[in-house]
Amino acid sequence: MSRTGLVINALWLQLGWWGCVWGAKDPRWLLAVLVGLLAHLMLCPGPRAELHAVMRVGLGGMLLDWGLGVLGLFEFNHPPLPLWLALLWLVFATGLRHSLAWAATPVWRGACAGFIGGPLAYCVGAPLTGVTLPLGVLGTALVLAPLWALLMPLALRLADSR
């Protein structure tokens, strides 16, 4: 992907994150996110491989967050998993083969990115979406940091599988 394509993908990830977060309160934003997801799939090189990567990572992430909700790390307004959060996993997955690919090797890059970025995204997003963190922000971050240090390299690898 060209440098311009990588910048566009990085911007899409940010806009998609915000669209999903705002979509927790106003579902019209989720329609815009769906349009963005479809545009990404149609415009990226190798749309079939991209779709498979997005679905692998997206479904895995949805199952993870559902499980963390069952275990009590999160309390959602719409169990088992809100639509905005399911879409957020798909948005995240669209960056793994593009603007987030830098974190794939060496593995420690992905682990560091996950260790910091994963908990940050959850802890910033939770109050904006009405998700309750029973362990508090610090407790949740302490659970999520090592989990995401493992998850990010795994997600990058799943996205890259052919």
How many distinct domains?
A: 1
Report the helical percentage: over 70%
State the end-to-end CA separation.
17 Å
Mean of pLDDT = 95
| Outline | globular
Summarize the structure.
The protein is mostly helical.
Please tag this protein with its features:
globular; mainly alpha; 6 helices; 0% strand; 162 residues
Task: List the SSEs and their pairings.
Blueprint: H1 3-23, H2 28-43, H3 47-70, H4 83-93, H5 107-129, H6 136-160
Helix pairs in contact: 1-2, 1-4, 2-4, 3-4, 3-6, 5-6
Walk me through what this model shows.
This protein is mostly helical and 162 residues long. It has one domain. The protein is built from six helices and no strands. It has helices at residues 3-23, 28-43, 47-70, 83-93, 107-129, 136-160.
